[in-house]
Amino acid sequence: MKIACANCAVTMKYHDTGYFFLHNNQNHSVPVMGYSTRLEDGTYVFLYENLKDLYEKLMRVEELMEKDGWKCSINCINQPGPFMTVGRFMLLMKHKEMVEMIQDGHFTSHLQPIVDLSDYSLFGYESLLRAGDQSKKINPGQLFEVAANTGFHSMLDQKARKSAIECRVGQVTPGIKSFINFLPSTIYNPEFCLRHTFQIVNELGLNPEDLVFEVVETEKIVDVEHLKSVLDVYKREGMKVALDDVGSGFATVEMLTLLNPDYVKIDRSFINHCDSDAENQEFLRKVMKIAGELDIHVLAEGIERKEELLFCKEIGVHYAQGYFIGKPARQAEKPFADSLLV
Question: Of 218, 230, 225, whose CA–CA distance to 186 is shortest?
Answer without folding.
Answer: 230
